[in-house]
Amino acid sequence: MTPGDAGAPIADLRVGVLGGGQLGRMLAEAGRPLGVAFRFWDPGEAEPIAGFGEHICAAWDDDAAFERFVDGLDVVTYEFENVPVELARRIAEVVPVHPDPAALDVAQDRLSEKSRFESLGIATNAFLPVDGPGALASAIEAVGYPAVLKTRRLGYDGKGQEVLRRPDDTQGAFERLGSVPCILEAFVPFDRELSLVAVRTADGRFAPYPLVENTHVEGILVRTEAPAEGVSAAIRDQAETAVRALAEALDYVGTIAVEFFEVAGGSADDRRLLANEVAPRVHNSGHWTQDGAVTSQFENHVRAVCGLPLGPTGIAWPTVMVNLIGRRGDAEALLACDGARLHDYGKSERPGRKVGHVNVLGSTGQAARDRAEALRAVYAGPELR
Ligand code: AMP
Predict the structure, then answer these.
(1) Low-confidence ranges of the chain (pLDDT < 50)
(2) Residues of 110-119 as b/e, b for ≥16 C-beta within 10 angstroms?
(3) Rounded Cα gap, residues 96 and 65, in angstroms
(4) What would the pLDDT profile of 180-220 be if each residue is shown by its tens digit?
């Protein structure tokens, strides 16, 4: 069936999702009320999507699983970034895949991601490829201390990176990251971290959500405040122009997120953004949209990849999103907090693992912040590694 056929029931749409984590669960939560059915392919246990659709549990190179997965699907998308690009390309030969596997290709490799920012005129911090200890030494000479060494691939939630502050840190750093291809980046003394989540349709409609402010601890997102306070029109414009340019260059369809560092310029009101990374999927810093926006990032992703009209991306409630990391806490106590909306991922608890989040709503940004502060008395904070 083609979405948009006159009178065609959208209930007939079947979406395949590569990956079966919490993002897949939340896509299904958002898509099912529209009548969309889901099938997931994940080689692992995929606890979060239990009960949300068929789970094909097989290695990515399993040919029989490939056939079972694509059978009868209208469109395929991802909830997980490290899906083999070749697999996504093979699927695209038989079923439309959104976003295009080219977006995965760019986002999986920090070097191509940063190079793409540069080629599109999107400001980013200085970076150089590092393929060995010798290259690291010369990159340090060029970039200076402090710097951040990151594996080009498979880094997430602060894993696969080391901050280098002095020559002692540099000694053996390449080897500690596994002697794999890396990039060295200048350390950014940012004032704060902002991100922009947006959605783009196949016919080129681009709809950004408000910029949000993120707090990371040990590289893991712990808190998002939506909207970010005190964002100037110039900063908003810089973020939207960058994400739009990237989405257009990739002919992107679906929800996309770009994380930025906000840095001070020469004068007090002179601030600018440096792009850090892009996520070619729904993003943790967009989870607030489930309760705080008119249409969530998950629903709009489903709508975009299915060729359905987008919903409004405006804010309904100022929201602070608090991640539940390592342990889910006392659900009853969390639910008793003013303005709290709990989202449990159905995952077993493990140190450093995201197991849920709470969206704390308020009538104003200050009210949401105060309520999030009150919630901290109930859920003391992230227990990281
Ligand atoms: P990433 O995996 O690149 O998103 O990094 C995770 C977090 O580490 C970021 O959100 C920042 O808080 C911090 N970080 C990463 N790269 C840099 C950098 N070049 N300068 C300063 N902080 C960084």
Answers:
(1) 1, 384-385
(2) bbebbbbbee
(3) 18
(4) 999 999 999 999 999 999 999 999 999 999 999 999 998 89
Range(s) within the chain of domains with CATH label 3.30.470.20: 192-379
Instruction: Give burial (CB, 10 Å; 0-12/13-18/19+) of 258.
Output: buried
Say what the pLDDT of residue 2 is.
53
Structure tokens at 361: 């709503």
- Which residues of the chain form CATH 3.40.50.20? 10-97
Reported CATH class of domain 192-379: alpha beta
Q: Which CATH class is domain 126-186?
A: alpha beta
Taking the C-alpha atoms of residue 355 and residue 83, their distance in angstroms, rounded to an integer, is: 21
Q: Cβ < 6 Å from ligand 1: which residues?
A: 125, 148, 155, 158, 185, 187-188, 193, 216, 219, 259, 276-277
C-alpha distances in Å from residue 37, one per residue of 16, 287, 345: 9, 21, 19
What pLDDT sits at residue 159? 80
Q: What is the reported pLDDT for 385?
A: 43
d(CA 201, CA 305): 7
Measuring from atom 8 of ligand 1, which residue has the nearest CA?
A: 219
Q: Tell me, in angstroms, the distance from the centre of ligand 1 to residue 277's CA.
A: 9
- Out of 276, 277, 284, mutate this one to test ligand 1's pocket (max ligand atoms within 8 Å of CB): namely 276
Class of domain 10-97: alpha beta
**Phi/psi of residue 355, nearest 5 degrees:** -115, -5
Ligand 1: centre distance to CA 288 (Å): 21
